[in-house]
Amino acid sequence: MALEDRIKQIEDEIKKTPYNKATSHHIGKLKAKLSKLKEESLQRSSKGTKGKGFHVKKSGDSTVVLVGFPSVGKSTLLNDLTNAESKIGEYEFTTLEIIPGIMEYEGAKIQILDIPGIITGASKGKGRGREILSVARNADLILIILDVFNPQHFHVIIDELKNIGIRPNEERPDVTVKQKKIGGLKISSTVELTNITEKTIRSVLNEYGIHSADVLIRDDVTVDQFIDSLDVSCKYTPTLKVLNKIDLVDEEYLNEIKSKMPDAMFISANKQINVEELKKETFNKLELIRIYLKPQGRKADLDEPLIIRKNSTVRDVANKLHRDFVRNFRHAKVWGSSVKFGGQKAGLDHVLNDGDILRIIVKK
Ligand SMILES: Nc1nc2c(ncn2[C@@H]2O[C@H](COP(=O)(O)OP(=O)(O)O)[C@@H](O)[C@H]2O)c(=O)[nH]1
Ligand SMILES: [Mg+2]
């Protein structure tokens, strides 16, 4: 049976099985099976897309992807936010390729990708949807662009993203599984588990071929979250909801949607309403910090910071500068709020703070 058919079969079986105490571990097993199959299917499709024009080189300090149905104004918005010139169309499916642009904000260069519009069923391959959506898997932030007249598309997009292995706005659950050769499964948790039984945990692990391991759970996870924690390919990506074309609606309509979607941004891409606010919110959501580099024997360059994601380490900076910095790393010296005193020695795993000054010392 083809992979997609097996996925469908298990999805149907999960739907058919009533959920209760007696069936929960069976459902857990099915869900684990499903997750494995989806992962496999994802891997296959990403192999198949190489060289087809959907591979975009990452550039800038972080990458933002615009995801939405056709004709919601993604290309118009890309042109507003960046130096790019993406074609804008009156008809659907204007953009058939990925158009990158760079948005400069507060000294950061943020890459924004305009991808073709997706439709319902995209993650199952409709309209090249899988290839399109796989680009979103590499994003640091996803802007979900909605037409002000179709806010209900939000749920479709979230489902499509989930199907492609993205967990929008979720945190990676705190679960560690240390596999061992013998000894069986030892399961412990630091919180009370109210959503999953030990039996279910065991059957999920067995489905993954894990029969001996120390499992430590620090969050009150659901079955789905527990399965996700075993799937290293899951991406936990923040998103920002953007409702476009507000110039077309009256205040009453607008206020009604605002009350239903209080966390969304309301803009008009072609009338340039709230575009500056969107730039600011995008920048904030990425949680970027500035690091000033201090070359040996010289003052730190306080004009041109290096921009990296919050919680980045010395290793992340070193990697960004040059491969050799990690290979020949001796130690680092740090000035700023991440250390107790200025010039403190730090290793590759030291987590940096906004405004830190960093000097990397390498082996000669
Ligand atoms: N009234 C209005 N029209 C817009 C707005 N943004 C985009 N459009 C129009 O919507 C159509 C589709 O825009 P486009 O950027 O190509 O959408 P895409 O398919 O999502 O890339 C074009 O005719 C745009 O001029 C907006 O804020 N207000
Ligand atoms: Mg477009």
Topology, please?
Elements: H1 3-16, H2 24-48, E1 62-68, H3 74-81, E2 99-105, E3 108-114, H4 129-136, E4 141-147, H5 153-163, E5 175-179, E6 185-189, H6 198-207, E7 213-217, H7 223-230, E8 239-244, H8 251-260, E9 265-266, H9 275-286, E10 288-293, E11 306-309, H10 314-321, H11 323-327, E12 329-335, E13 344-346, E14 357-362
Parallel strand pairs: 1-3, 1-4, 4-8, 6-7, 8-9, 10-14
Antiparallel strand pairs: 2-3, 5-7, 10-11, 12-13, 12-14
Helix pairs in contact: 1-2, 2-6, 2-7
Residues 74-75, 94-95, 114 line the site of magnesium ion (MG).
> Within the CATH hierarchy, at the fold level, what is the topology of the largest domain?
Rossmann fold
Stretches where pLDDT is under 50 for at least 5 consecutive residues are: 49-53
The largest sheet, given as strand count, sense and whether it forms a barrel, is: 6 strands, mixed
Number of domains as seen in the coordinates: 3
Number of helical segments with 4 or more residues:
11
Which range best describes the helical content: under 10%, 10-25%, 25-40%, 40-55%, 55-70% or over 70%?
25-40%
CATH class of the largest domain: Alpha Beta
Residue-averaged pLDDT, rounded?
A: 89
* CATH architect. name of the largest domain: 3-Layer(aba) Sandwich
Could you state the CATH homologous superfamily of the largest domain? P-loop containing nucleotide triphosphate hydrolases
The unique ligands bound to this protein are:
guanosine-5'-diphosphate, magnesium ion
Rg on CA atoms, Å: 23 Å
**Succession of helices and strands:** HHEHEEHEHEEHEHEHEHEEHHEEE
Strand content: 15-25%
How many β-strands, per DSSP?
A: 14
Could you give the order of strands across the largest sheet? 2-3-1-4-8-9
